[in-house]
């Protein structure tokens, strides 16, 4: 009985393994198909990508098909990694900034410099160093930062007016757009309109890296630039977090934990998010404005989030994929992509160019938030092993989100939780 | 199935009678008994192949992976022997995870079985409207798990429906998903309400199989309702209690989606149960080797509990079919 069972298992295992192995050898000479994973299922985005792909295929008959495969944003990196683990890696993939160090340093991605430089008319040197920094290792570029999107504050001007508070535009004109005043306005909205004041989008008391849009104004950082020293219990961070804690629990300027409010559904006076979300405002009936982040005690600052595109080394047609990437991101196509994603190419980073393709935003908003933001922006926290770090910080920060929290004590706790991980 | 296997059906590929058919009479080897065995084997083959491919093979692979350090991004797969098991023993987070798992599972099993039995006893009365209530309590079982959990996520928010109802009757509800104990309790209740209908139906079926004469006799002897329940109902439905408790314990140890949707293991690590922890290790932290080690641990825990429950049945299960 046992012997027979073993035979059955062995047979099944052989069937299973040979089924897994079957796909690899096929089609290395014939027309190839490319697949790129994205976290955007936006129809307009996909339409543009498909148009560019069609144009590429018309001049490259060796490529039979290029598909864009959207994966939900929340589980993007997990799903991508699982596909790679399962032996089904995409040929090209979008990579989030918080996963960039892992992808860049692991050797999962193909170095792109050579392919991009030798592509006719690519103008490799146009890429802004501030934008490509995160995507480089040992002097080689592993990802093309197709989207360098600064954080700004969207304002529901109707709600602010209804609350009788000073609007951010007025505060900017009076040179008084500071965090203190921003919280006063948000607090008034929450007290007088019954809606939320200020929402840090995607934070929801879990996505703590979005709080860097606030604490950077205090000069605080999650960890040192070399990634080795915890910054959570530094004085700047304690000050910033104390301010935030009071804004949440005393001034009620931000909705408390476990309270949902969507700015884009008209449920909040202000929200901190990336300008790429402006498309969500297209059908809104309320009046709105886009302003830069307020000044903190250390003055003005900006924070950027990035998205990169890379070629998976394990993909079946890595060279073809790299060639397509060079086409997709050449100056002409970069200009097209710029309508959705702020590009890393310096000649495209002018208010006039961006205004052509961002009709919802005024040139001065683009200049203030996007162009100035990219020039001196601090990238959101990122580190190798980010997922584990992020989880450790989230769970150590949880005690902070109570009215009677000991801010300093909690932040010390965060450092003891992540120090072993930073030392890895 | 065991009967078929034990009779040596595995070898029973129908050999075409070798060479000289005339020499070996038909009824020699190829008997009708063997033909039946072959037919039986063919009938169970799809199930056997399925089990081998989708149960036994992955099970074996997980054990194999647990002996490796597997970095998906760097594409390395190195044999590390028992390193992952040593890491398991030294993992500072594991005791907390096991504690959460224990609280969660005990809470879930006790709540679920007690409520299911209570509902079944109540709905076993011959009263008008019981069908409506049976349907009502069973309907969550057929609702999509994730949809059910997302809706509860909204209801349990600080400004959500549950606290709205509490506020209407003058109570100040806690922030359910943000407190360590209330979050654990919330996940348990959401899961119990979702699945209690299934156990309820099993209990109902068992209750209806208890002969009415026994109650009649007990009443004649002057037994109270409670004594009847304890001395007649419970022993007679004990096989079903065993079945539901095994299903519920195994189910409790495998709860994942509710936690992923409602709490992501937080606040702190209060709802990080073993399955969620292994998901984090494997799929979020990319440590597939260690994740596999954790799943081997989970397998052993489930196996042990099931075996223990099965062994203990002799002590308290009244009769077996």
TrEMBL record, chain A:
PROSITE patterns: PROKAR_LIPOPROTEIN. It comes from the Bacteria. InterPro entries: Bact_solute-bd_prot1, SBP. Keywords: Signal. SUPFAM superfamilies: Periplasmic binding protein-like II. Pfam families: SBP_bac_1. Residues 1-21 form the signal peptide. PANTHER family: ARABINOSE-BINDING PROTEIN-RELATED, DIACETYLCHITOBIOSE BINDING PROTEIN DASA. This is Sugar ABC transporter substrate-binding protein. It comes from Micromonospora trifolii. The lineage of its organism: Bacteria, Bacillati, Actinomycetota, Actinomycetes, Micromonosporales.
TrEMBL record, chain B:
It holds the Pfam family BPD_transp_1. Residues 1-26 are annotated as: Disordered. PROSITE patterns: ABC_TM1. Residues 98-309 form the ABC transmembrane type-1 domain. Residues 8-26 have a biased composition (Low complexity). The keyword Transmembrane applies. InterPro entries: ABC_transporter_permease, MetI-like, MetI-like_sf. It is found in: Cell membrane. It is a multi-pass membrane protein. Keywords: Cell membrane, Membrane, Transmembrane, Transmembrane helix, Transport. The chain crosses the membrane at residues 41-67, 102-123, 135-155, 181-207, 234-257, 288-308. Gene3D superfamilies: MetI-like. PANTHER family: ABC TRANSPORTER PERMEASE PROTEIN, DIACETYLCHITOBIOSE UPTAKE SYSTEM PERMEASE PROTEIN NGCF. Belongs to the binding-protein-dependent transport system permease family. This is Sugar ABC transporter permease. It comes from Micromonospora trifolii. The lineage of its organism: Bacteria, Bacillati, Actinomycetota, Actinomycetes, Micromonosporales.
